[in-house]
Structure formats: structure tokens, C-alpha cells
Design a protein that fits this description.
The structure holds three protein chains of three kinds. By secondary structure, chain A is mainly alpha-helical. Chain A is built from 14 helices and two strands; from the N terminus they run αααββααααααααααα. In chain A, helix 4 crosses helix 14. In chain B, helix 3 packs across helix 13 and helix 4 packs antiparallel against helix 10. The chains are: A mainly alpha, B mainly alpha, C alpha/beta.
């Protein structure tokens, strides 16, 4: 007590005390100064982002309320594109196909990738060879990947039909029947994407502390049980990132549709981005295309938030 | 026989049984892995065969799985009649340029989002992430017009048929920032606080502490960005108008006819494109998976 | 950051404004062309120093090299330097959308009927009507068939000068016909009977898996391109003559689709959709496993180079009740409305569409020249016969909505030939889509 009073009466200390006005000014100056490194670190990205990503995006939102606007002059039409979008049958089909594709692709890719990653994790010999070999398909350009799949699914010469024929089974019509065509597209995308996710999950598995697994072994937990009780919970935060990224990327399904099926048969493989692409460039229906892109953006944002809430909460609990 | 030796035998048998199970397990594991490798790499044979064939068609009856001749005409055509080498160099400059710039701005921004406090942080980050979800095709024309008009403003550095115009718009990747942020957030907070108390500047913390720890994550992101740009088609398609400024994907596409395509040439081109990228990949893959990378992706 | 957004937005808006502000220039250019064009071309190279940009999607992997031989002649004659850009067919519309939206589009481009008015009606191409009626073109104009020019004209505007017309041809394996003792069919009904007879004959001789007929009916393989001549043969069309009413659910369209569907689902002379795509079917024919195939005449060269192990020939695609017309699209040379060298561009277009160049080009790529005084057969009897069918050419009429209407038609055709959707249902839905498309904008 005495000490405080003594300090307060100290002329030096008193001199240092500032008025409210001075304090406010100093505070904002301090805050501004604290922003300097933020600008330095965030500036380069945020500048390029605002010019090359945010601006085109703002513009595309504006175009969704207009007709034309790329080659010819934009004409404001209010919500017309949006109401046309909501009543478009082909878009409904495209959305259904894309959703089905996203669910199957994520499920198949993630289960296969987790299986392979855990096999690689417990069998270290030749790991590098397997990693490179599995990543290889990602290097093949989409046009050629499509050609490869024409071969694989060829009615007479495709490897699967040759096997079926040897077993006296009926051959499959891969691209002419539903849901075969969509499943063929799923396999093409799984073929291309599997390697990336194997590496991804392998990295995750390798980060699980060895003592955790040893402890479980001593407790007599089998490998399946160890996988379920230790690997999966530890991987959950990783899964969150993976699911979000996979959602975003898979909703953009386009390449393999363009190369393999052009949306057919009977609209069995139209995807949302294929729908947008056709309106935007082939039909020059700019307004509908942009209304749909903004709509897709909103949908994926909602799904991401839901995924985040669902998986994010659980991962917090498990930590 | 003594009790002790009986126990030893029992233990020995158990151990033998265990190692047998383990061996069987590993045989099964490698069989499964081999199957996946076959499924991954096997289909490439469909490219090899037409690339070395004189025929212009992809298919033939009866099927030819292996090249029956060693015809090099398709490769010769690419090297002498097209700008193939130039396309390759352009692709390399494009992919490398994007990768280098993206890595710099993404790590810096990732650090800011992970470890710095500033008003509106969450909102800005949310907006940045949201732009990841727009289809790239939709942004194509607006970005093109933007770059077209930047030509005068940037003294021709960013414009049509320039490396600047090709590279700079592609360097903006919210995914990279997201990934870098996730990584930096997993680094122990103590590291930063100790350094701050010592009076180290943010820049010093970033270069001396964060960057060395982030090396594996940077390599992973780098390879990912490089691969994406190596395969990029739409943006280089619209932003380049001259044969000499084209990249491989676009150049190869200009070899396809409207109705009739010489698939032998396309297959040869694909093989020639696969070779260098595979080498790049093999060179970097030893950094590809390191335990700490997993941290990069953890919450 | 927000400042940056604002600045960039200003730039983008500037881009739009820039597009608008060029309109007076363009009008000036068009006005210029009304004046008599270069009477005295002898007076040393009127376009010395002009550089033209030229965008063209290729018809073969060797086209770039060929242009290297073709263009110098023109450049020497006029003093114009031509910068050729080969644009890939793959995602062509995306490229052109961006290019035409800028203020420096290609001066001259190659455009098909589906793109000509899609872009042209949005102000990208110059209307060539005045130019083709000019004195310098008076000797050329009569060589263009009225039907071909008519199909390329929309609302009295001609956005591109026709260069080639597409046709389709039916290829027949004559050995198989002989073996089964059937004649070359001349009508659709005869075709089905002949195909059935051949399949039965081959089966009896132990040749299993021989197929009767193939032509694409799917969206992915441009089914509309190979089917619409049958609608014309029946006297109908998918769009009314004034281009305002969709006729997707008309009797002729549906009967034609029903016939195509029956060949697959009922008569079983054509394999189900998806089993073989176009390339695979061509290989089937080459291997002697297919009796008839309707495809592009450019395959004549492919088959001659491959030296097929059986006798074959090409015929008109068979018609309904003996009526047979040709249907396909037209390829044009178009001049950009924003071109700063429109007169030089017209010189290039005249060169490209000249009888001499047309013959040279199509001797290599096998299309039918859009002018009667060009001979692209190069002495090849089959190609000459194919070229003569231009007399009954009744090709696609260009219009800005035609891409979308064809998409509706193609989707319905694919559904109808899938053997799972009825023709009525498929084309009712196409009619709905097409009507909506026509009503919009």
C-alpha cells in the first residue's frame, strides 16, 4: 500500500501517466504499428487475391443478375436468371449426379487410401516405389486419361470385359448404361486421385506416436481394433481437412465428363460444372451460367460449414 | 525332459507360429499393394503401344497390347514439325514460376492467419476460402479481360502472351494458404512466445523458427502446385495466342483434328510429357512424406 | 485490399466500356468498305506492313506445317503478314469467348454454323453482305450455291463466307453384301433388310459377332450430325423455317427417331449406344466386322491408307421412301467487327475462299468445297462422287440459338435410342427445353 502511494507520488511516474486523450491516441498508434507486420505478411497474397480472384468473383456475382456482359453489353434483369436456374430440369439432374458422385468418390477414395496407407505403414519395404507408382496416374493429362479409360471399358478389348468373357459372364456396357457411366467416371477419378490421398493418409498414420500403438499392443488389441481405436481418432483432424478439400474439388467434376461422356447417357453423368460450362460458352447464356456458379458456391459453403461443425466438434472432443 | 525345456519349446512354437502369421500377413499385404500398383501403372500400356505404332488409330482388331514395331515417326514428327521443345520449356517456366511465387505468398499469409492478431481476421479468411469454391471456368473470361487491360498498367509485364500474364493470376491459391495456416497452427505456441519475449521480430521468428520447421509442408505444397499447373489447360489456352508462347497441354490439343485425330502422335506426346514430370517427382519424393508433414494438416 | 478490389473493378468495367467505345470505329470500317475496294491492285502491294491475326482450329496434326507452305504466296502478293494461331477444338468456345470479349480479337477466324451466329449476333463479326456484292467479288459470287449461302445467312446478315460444307457418307463392305446376295440398299427399309440378311449369312458361315449398321446416335459422338438428314428426308425439321418455333415433337422428328431406335432396340441391326463409340466402330468396319457405317467422307483417305482387306465403296446415306438429302454444317471465314485492318482481312478471306486454295486445302482434308468451281477430289473417284452430293445439300441453318436447340435434340435422340425412354417422352422434354431456350433473351 505504502509502496503504491509512494510510487504514485513519484514525479517520474506521474510524468509518465497520460490523459485519456493521450492514452487513446497512443493505443491506436500502437495498434497501427502492430498492423505493420500483418500488412507485410498478408499484403502480397491479399493484394493478388483481391485483384485476380475476388474481383472476377464480384464481377461474376454482378453478371448473375444480367444477361450478356462478356462479349456484348450487360443488361440488368434482376432475379430472372435465378428463377430460371431454380426451375431448370437439367440442373436438377446435374446436381443429383454430382452429389451422388461426390458421396461415392469420397467414400471409395478415402477407404481405399486408408487401407493402402495402413498397409504401407506396416510394411515399410519398397514404400517409396509404391508411393511413386500410385501417384503416377495424376501425371497423365485428362485427355489421355480419358483415352485410357476408353480402352479399359472397351466392349470387346477392355480388360474387365475380357475377364468377364473368360468367365462366361455377360459383358458390361460401361458408357451406354446408367448407373454404369457414372461409376466409370468415379473409377477414372479414383484412379487419378488415389495416389494423392494415400500419401496424405500415410503421412497422418506415420505421425501417430509409436508409444501409443505399443501400449495398445501390450493391452492385446488386434490390428483392426488398433486401427479403429487409435488410428481413426488420431486421424480425425486430418480427415476434416481432407473432407473439406475433397468436397470442394469433387463438386467441380468436369474433365472426365467432357472427355468420356459429354453428360450422357440420357443425362446420366451431367455435372453442375458441365452444365455451367455449356451455358457459359457453348450457349452464351452468361446470366444462367453465373447464377449457377454463385449458387454452387453457396451450396459448397453451406456443406463445408456443416462438415466443419460435424467433424470439427468431434475432433475437439477427442483431443 | 525337464519342465523348463518343455516351456522353452512351447514358447519357441508360439514364436514360430507368430512369425508365420506375420509372414503370411505381409505376403497378403504385398499382394494387395501389388494389385493396386498394377491398376495404377498398368493402363499406361495403352499409351505405349500406339505411340510406337505407325497407325493413326488408337484401336485395332485384334488388340495389340505391346508395340509390334519400334516406329519412332511419331516422336520425330513432334520434335521436327511442332514447337514441342518450346512448349516444354514454357510449361516448365510456367509451373516453376507459379510454384515459387505461390509458396512465398502462401507461407507468409498462412503465418499471418495462424499467428497474428488483426481486426477482421476471421471474415477475411472466410472470404478467401469461399473463393476456392467457384468453378475455375466461370472466372476465366473476367480474369482474361483483367489481364488484357493490365497490359498498359504494368508496362507489358502482365498481359497476353507474357510469362507474367500466364503466371501471376495462377499464383493465387486459397488452398495453399489454408494448408500453410493449418501447419503453422500445430507448431507449439511456446516457441513463439519465447522468441517474442526475447524481442525477436515477426520476420525473425518466421525465418528462423517457422520456415525450417515447415520444410516438409512447403515441399508437399510445392509438388502439388507444380503438378496442378503442369496439367493446367484452360488458363494457358486463353492467355496465349502464339504457338511459341503455348504450353504442352495446349500445344498437344492443337494436334487434334475436328473429326480425325492422329492418336499415335498424341500418345507419343503424352509419353514425352510424362517422362520429365516423373523425373521431377522422383527427385522430390524423398521429402514427400515425412512424419512432420502430417502436422501440416492437423487442426 | 478493398481499394485493390475497387481499382481492379474499375479496370474490368473499363474493359466493358472499351468494348462499347470501339463501336464507332467499327462503323467507320464498315462505311469504308462501301467505297470501291482497291481497283488498281497492281500498284505495288496495297497492304504493305499490315499484320493480320488469324485463328483456326485444325483439321489435322500437320495443318500448321501446311499453312507454312500456303500462306507465303498470299503474303508475297499483298504484303500482308499473317500471324496464324492454331486454336484447339477442345474448349474452343471458351477461348473465343475470352478473345472476342477483348478489344483485340483475331482479325480472321474459321467458324462453323453452330458458332457463326452464336458469336456473330453478339456483334463480334462483320456482316459480309456488302463485300460479297462488291465489284471485286462479282466473278466469285455465282460459284457459291444459293442453298449454301442461304443456310449461312441469318436475318439477312452473312457473318462468314462459306468455305466447306460437311457431308456424311455410308460406307459398305461389298464382300459381305455379295456373300449374302443382297444389293446396295437405296432406302431405309432396304437398309434394315440388307443388314439383317448379312448378319444371318455371316452367322451361318460361322462368323459370329458381325454387326449390321452403325452411325452415332449419342450426344458425345454428335448423333444429331448423322441423323438430321433423315428428318429432312421425311420433309420435316427440328425448327420452323422462320427460326421462331421449335418442332421437336413434330411427326417427322419423332418418326425419324423411332426408326433410329428400332434399328437398335427392335431390329437389332445396330449395337446398343455406348458399346462402341465412333472410333471403335470405324475400327470394327476396318476389321471386317461391320457391314455398313455412316460417317464423314474424310474416312475415305483413312480407309485407303489402311488398305482394307475387302472391297468397299461409299454411297449417299439412305433416304426415307427413296428421298435422299445431305445434311451437315458449314465452315466459314469470318472477319472480326473490331478488326483494325478489315480491308486487309477481306483480302485474306478472298484468298482463303478462292477456288484454287479451296481445292488445295480439301485435297488434303477431304471436305466438300462450298463453291462449285473448286475440285478437291484430286482425281479420287470416290471423293468426286461425294462432292457431287452438294447438289442435294440441305444443311444446318445457322442461328444464335442453334447450339442449344441441337443440344436439346441430341439429348432426346440419345434418350429415344437408349431403348428405355419412349420417343414421345424424350421429344416432349426436348420441345419444352427448346421452347424455353427460344423464349429467353
Amino acid at each position: 500500500m505504502d509502496l503504491v502511494e509512494q510510487n504514485l507520488s513519484d514525479p517520474d511516474w506521474q510524468e509518465l501517466t497520460m490523459s485519456d486523450e493521450e492514452f487513446r491516441r497512443a493505443r491506436s498508434r500502437y495498434k497501427l504499428r502492430a498492423l505493420v507486420p500483418v500488412v507485410g505478411f498478408l499484403g502480397p497474397f491479399l493484394f493478388l487475391w483481391s485483384v485476380f480472384l475476388a474481383t472476377p468473383m464480384v464481377w461474376s456475382i454482378w453478371l448473375s443478375f444480367n444477361t450478356g456482359g462478356l462479349i456484348d453489353e450487360a443488361k440488368f434483369v434482376g432475379l430472372e436468371n435465378w428463377s430460371r436456374m431454380l426451375s431448370n430440369d437439367e440442373l436438377v439432374r446435374s446436381l443429383k449426379n454430382t452429389a451422388t458422385y461426390v458421396v461415392i468418390a469420397i467414400f471409395v477414395v478415402f477407404s481405399l487410401a486408408l487401407l493402402i496407407a495402413s498397409l504401407l505403414n506396416s510394411n515399410k519395404r519398397g514404400q517409396n516405389f509404391f508411393k511413386v507408382a500410385l501417384y503416377f496416374p495424376l501425371l497423365v493429362p485428362p485427355i489421355m486419361a480419358g483415352m485410357i479409360f476408353f480402352f479399359l471399358t472397351h466392349y470387346d478389348m477392355g480388360i474387365i470385359n475380357l475377364v468377364l468373357q473368360a468367365m462366361n459372364q455377360e459383358k458390361l456396357n460401361f458408357l451406354g448404361d446408367n448407373p454404369n457411366a457414372l461409376l466409370t467416371i468415379v473409377s477414372l477419378e479414383v484412379w487419378r486421385g488415389l495416389g494423392f490421398w494415400v500419401l496424405f493418409f500415410l503421412a497422418g498414420l506415420q505421425s501417430i506416436p509409436a508409444d501409443l500403438i505399443d501400449a495398445a499392443k501390450i493391452d492385446g488389441a488386434g490390428s483392426m481394433r488398433r486401427f479403429r481405436k487409435i488410428s481413426i481418432p488420431t486421424l480425425r483432424p486430418l480427415l476434416l481437412f481432407a473432407v473439406i478439400i475433397a468436397l470442394i474439388f469433387n463438386f467441380q467434376l468436369f474433365d472426365s465428363v467432357q472427355v468420356l461422356t459429354k453428360g450422357g447417357p440420357v443425362l446420366g453423368t451431367t455435372s453442375v460444372v458441365w452444365f455451367i460450362y455449356k451455358r457459359l460458352f457453348a450457349f452464351q447464356d452468361i446470366g444462367l451460367a453465373y447464377a449457377t456458379s454463385v449458387g454452387l458456391l453457396l451450396l459448397v459453403v453451406v456443406l463445408t460449414v456443416v462438415a466443419y461443425g460435424f467433424l470439427g466438434k468431434k475432433s475437439e472432443n477427442s483431443n | 525332459m525337464s519342465l523348463k525345456s518343455e516351456h522353452t519349446k512351447e514358447l519357441h512354437d508360439l514364436a514360430l507360429q507368430n512369425s508365420r502369421i506375420r509372414r503370411t500377413k505381409s505376403v497378403i499385404a504385398y499382394a494387395v499393394l501389388g494389385l493396386f500398383v498394377f491398376a495404377s501403372v498398368g493402363p499406361i500400356i495403352y499409351i505405349i503401344s500406339p505411340a510406337f505404332r505407325e497407325s493413326k488409330s488408337l484401336f485395332s482388331y485384334p488388340p495389340q497390347w505391346l508395340p509390334n514395331s519400334f516406329y519412332l515417326g511419331n516422336f520425330k514428327f513432334l520434335l521436327s514439325e511442332t514447337n514441342y521443345i518450346r512448349w516444354g520449356i514454357n510449361t516448365f517456366i510456367f509451373a516453376t514460376g507459379v510454384t515459387v511465387i505461390a509458396l512465398i505468398i502462401d507461407t507468409l499469409a498462412g503465418y499471418a492467419f495462424a499467428r497474428m492478431e488483426f481486426p477482421g481476421k476471421k471474415i477475411i479468411f472466410g472470404l478467401v476460402l469461399a473463393t476456392l469454391m467457384v468453378p475455375t471456368a466461370a472466372l476465366l473470361a473476367p480474369t482474361y479481360l483483367l489481364v488484357r487491360n493490365l497490359d498498359d498498367w504494368t508496362f507489358g509485364l502482365i498481359g497476353l502472351d507474357t510469362y507474367g500474364g500466364l503466371i501471376i493470376p495462377m499464383t493465387v491459391s486459397p488452398l495453399g494458404v489454408f494448408m500453410m495456416r493449418q501447419f503453422i497452427e500445430t507448431l507449439p505456441k511456446g516457441l513463439f512466445e519465447a522468441a517474442r519475449i526475447d524481442g525477436a521480430s515477426e520476420w525473425r521468428i518466421f525465418t528462423r523458427i517457422v520456415l525450417p520447421l515447415m520444410k516438409p509442408a512447403v515441399v508437399v505444397l510445392g509438388i502439388f502446385v507444380f503438378m496442378m499447373q503442369w496439367a493446367n489447360f484452360l488458363w494457358p489456352l486463353v492467355i496465349t495466342t502464339k504457338d511459341e508462347t503455348r504450353v504442352l497441354t495446349v500445344g498437344i490439343a492443337t494436334l487434334q483434328g475436328q473429326f480425325v485425330t492422329n492418336w499415335g502422335v498424341i500418345a507419343a506426346a503424352t509419353l514425352m510429357t510424362l517422362a520429365p514430370i516423373t523425373l521431377v517427382f522422383l527427385f522430390f519424393q524423398r521429402w514427400f512424406v515425412q512424419a512432420s508433414m502430417a502436422g501440416a494438416l492437423k487442426q | 485490399m478493398f481499394l485493390a478490389v475497387l481499382g481492379a473493378t474499375a479496370l474490368v468495367v473499363g474493359a466493358c466500356g472499351g468494348g462499347g467505345s470501339t463501336t464507332p470505329d467499327t462503323q467507320a470500317v464498315v462505311a469504308d468498305t462501301q467505297a470501291p475496294v482497291t481497283e488498281d491492285t497492281v500498284a505495288a502491294l496495297p497492304f504493305e506492313g499490315v499484320t493480320l491475326t488469324f485463328g483456326k482450329a485444325p483439321h489435322g496434326e500437320d495443318e500448321k506445317a501446311n499453312w507454312g507452305e500456303w500462306l507465303p504466296e498470299f503474303e508475297a502478293q499483298t504484303g500482308i503478314k499473317v500471324e496464324l494461331t492454331q486454336v484447339p477444338w477442345d474448349q474452343l468456345e471458351a477461348l473465343y469467348t475470352a478473345n472476342f470479349a477483348s478489344d483485340t480479337p483475331y482479325d480472321v477466324t474459321y467458324q462453323t454454323s453452330t458458332h457463326l451466329t452464336l458469336f456473330g449476333e453478339r456483334g463480334t463479326f462483320e456482316d459480309l453482305t456488302a463485300r460479297i456484292n462488291g465489284a471485286d467479288f462479282a466473278g466469285d459470287l455465282p460459284n457459291f450455291p444459293a442453298g449454301v449461302l442461304g443456310a449461312s445467312t441469318y436475318n439477312n446478315k452473312l457473318y462468314g463466307l462459306p468455305f466447306v460444307v460437311g457431308t456424311t457418307a455410308m460406307f459398305a463392305n461389298l464382300d459381305m453384301l455379295k456373300s449374302a446376295g443382297v444389293e446396295v440398299p437405296t432406302s431405309d427399309v432396304e437398309l434394315v433388310a440388307a443388314a439383317k440378311a448379312i448378319i444371318a449369312d455371316q452367322k451361318a458361315k460361322g462368323n459370329k459377332g458381325v454387326l449390321g449398321f452403325y452411325t452415332p446416335r449419342t450426344v458425345a459422338d454428335y448423333g444429331w450430325y448423322f441423323t438430321l438428314q433423315d428428318v429432312h428426308n421425311r420433309g420435316g425439321d427440328f425448327l420452323s423455317a422462320d427460326g421462331k418455333t421449335a418442332l421437336m415433337d413434330s411427326k417427322e422428328v419423332k418418326e425419324s427417331a423411332q426408326f433410329a431406335a428400332d434399328m437398335i432396340c427392335k431390329d437389332k441391326v445396330q449395337p446398343a449406344n455406348g458399346l462402341y463409340n465412333r472410333e471403335a466402330a470405324i475400327e470394327l468396319f476396318k476389321a471386317g466386322k461391320l457391314a455398313f457405317i455412316q460417317d464423314e467422307p474424310s474416312r475415305v483417305k483413312t480407309f485407303e491408307e489402311a488398305v482394307l482387306p475387302f472391297a468397299w465403296d461409299i454411297y449417299m446415306p439412305v433416304g426415307h421412301n427413296g428421298k435422299a438429302t445431305q445434311f451437315a454444317t458449314t465452315g466459314h471465314w469470318a472477319i472480326s467487327a473490331k478488326s483494325k485492318n478489315a480491308d486487309a482481312a477481306w483480302e485474306l478471306v478472298k484468298f482463303l475462299s478462292s477456288a484454287a486454295f479451296n481445292s488445295t486445302y480439301n485435297q488434303r482434308y477431304g471436305f466438300v468445297p462450298a463453291r462449285l468451281d473448286a475440285d478437291a477430289s484430286g482425281g479420287n473417284e470416290k471423293l468426286a462422287r461425294n462432292a457431287s452430293w452438294v447438289a442435294v445439300w440441305d444443311g444446318l441453318k445457322t442461328s444464335p440459338k442453334v447450339s442449344q436447340l441441337l443440344d436439346e435434340y441430341a439429348k432426346a435422340l440419345e434418350a429415344a435410342t437408349s431403348c428405355k425412354t419412349s420417343v414421345d417422352d424424350a421429344f416432349a422434354s426436348a420441345q419444352k427445353g427448346a421452347t424455353e431456350a427460344l423464349a429467353q433473351g
